[in-house]
Amino acid sequence: MTDPRALYHDTIVDHDRNPRHEGPLPNATHSATIDNPLCGDIVTMRFVVEDGVIVDAAFEGRGCALSRASASIATTRAFGQTPEQLLELAGKFGQFLQSAPNDAPPLDLGELEVFGGVRSFKSRRTCACLSFRALTSALRTS
Amino acid sequence: MLRRVVELAARRRDFPALATLVNGRRLAYLDSAATALRPQAVIDAVTRASTHDAGSPYRGVHALAEAATTVVEHTRVEVARFLNGTAGEIIFTSGATAAINLVAQAWGRAHLGPGDVVVATELEHHSNLIPWQMICAERGAELRLAPVDDDGRIVLDRIQFDRVKLVAVAHVSNVAGTIAPIAELARRAHAVGALLLVDGAQAVAHLPVDVEALGCDFYAFSAHKLYGPTGTGVLWGRAGILDAMPPWQGGGGMIRSVGATTSTYREAPTRFEAGTPNVIGIAGLGAAIEYTHAIDLRTVHSDEARVHRALLAVIRAAGGRILGAPEIAVVAFELPRVHPHDVATLADGEGVALRSGHHCAAPLHHRFGVAASARVSVGCYTGEDDVAQFAQALAKIREVFP
């Protein structure tokens, strides 16, 4: 068994305590809300896409440190990306969380590598994935 | 032969799961409200029934079938004695959830119609709420939720009893830990000709239950919250009421005569036990009830009360907010700025098993203005060392989330 404190990398705690881009985004062009009925957590991801590029992003909702931190980091990764690039990142992140605990992370994951600890805690994968499921839903409906 | 097990240390030796090491730490099991651990006597009874009482009950004349029938019938008598009912009023189900669905479907279809009202409460577990939502929607009846106050107590005088046909209430709240005023609810329900169903899932391990003294009409509970196996439960129903109810599920064992297109049904309780009974689970339930006699639940209750006070003190010292005013050692709380899931995962790292989420009681969480909570709950094996370990876990959580 892995010590659960390995889950809570300083970066995750930092994004939970000091979330980036948390709040409404009135001029959003793309948004989606995903909830986890089992735990009552909910997250809404919103984006402004102009000329095929994400120029603004924000999240809102309630959830645990893992879901808040992944939403916060997702917004920081969105700026200047095309929706397709962010969807590709979401796919890589999902594969990463499904991989074995000692597998090397895929390239370009960046700060999201701090979620590696989740791979040892299957029940918490849905927490880390919640925001990426929301952003996938938001950007696929373009 | 009844063996008295009065000391906490002795009780603990009966529960092999307590020897589990979690992250190298001793296990402090504070999730008994979700499912209680099982004593060796229950594990042995399950094994014995699997090994020797291996036939199909009520369906054969050979030795193993007879042995299985004896297990089921012996346990039926034991359960009846445990609740102060009669054996003919004991229906075996897969759990409290199935027991309540049985009443909702069998009694509800026959007795609920447009204009009728079912009263549940804001503190119900989903198992005593959704079945009523379903049958009320199907029958065009109205479901009314009785309010609870800030302590998590049902506000009796705010329940409107007009047109009420049935009141469904938890004996003990699985979140607020409060005890419902069952006898008074029974009086008020009966005054308007309504029935009272009590969900005893959280009560049976902590309170003596006497269905006659409570005055209820149905009482449901699950074996696994009473130190028994999962997948086994009981519905007690007052004899005259059960006899007037149509069956719910059809199948083997519940019929009197079968024709090609119609059949007639047996009397209660057999009428409500279609299909081969869970002999193994029922054997475990019988052993669990015997174990509660051996440990003397009244003695355990005073031990639990001490642990209960210690838990409240530890949570308050950590700055936690307790949901309601628990009377039983089932304590839901939230820590400021730490999500319950993070509390539970980090506590697990310290060997402390506690519950997080809405505990299948979403309406009560809405009532308290929170989406989720963490919950600690005790069993007959819980001691003050478990509380101390929980306090250490809360301190570690503050290290990670200052």
* Sheet of most strands of chain B: 7 strands, mixed
The helix fraction of chain A, in percent, is: 25-40%
Instruction: Look at the structure and give the mean pLDDT of chain A.
Output: 93
| Backbone CA Rg of chain A | 14 Å
The interface involving the most residues is between:
A-B, 22 and 22 residues
Q: What value does the average pLDDT of chain B take?
A: 95
User: Strand share of the residues of chain A?
Assistant: 15-25%
Question: Which strand-content bin applies to the residues of chain B?
Answer: 15-25%
Give a brief rundown of this model.
By secondary structure, chain A is of the alpha+beta class.
Write the topology of this structure.
The complex is a heterodimer of chains A (142) and B (402).
Chain A: H1 10-17, E1 30-36, E2 41-50, E3 53-62, H2 65-78, H3 83-98, H4 125-140
Antiparallel strand pairs in A: 1-2, 2-3
Helix pairs in contact in A: 1-2, 2-4, 3-4
Chain B: H1 8-13, E1 21-22, E2 25-26, E3 28-29, H2 40-51, H3 63-83, E4 90-93, H4 96-111, E5 117-121, H5 130-139, E6 142-146, E7 164-170, H6 182-191, E8 195-199, H7 211-214, E9 218-222, E10 233-237, H8 239-243, E11 255-258, E12 263-265, H9 279-295, H10 297-317, E13 321-322, E14 330-334, H11 340-349, E15 352-353, E16 355-357, H12 362-367, E17 373-377, H13 384-400
Parallel strand pairs in B: 3-15, 5-6, 5-7, 7-8, 8-9
Antiparallel strand pairs in B: 1-2, 4-10, 9-10, 11-12, 13-14, 14-17, 16-17
Helix pairs in contact in B: 2-9, 3-9, 4-5, 10-13, 11-13
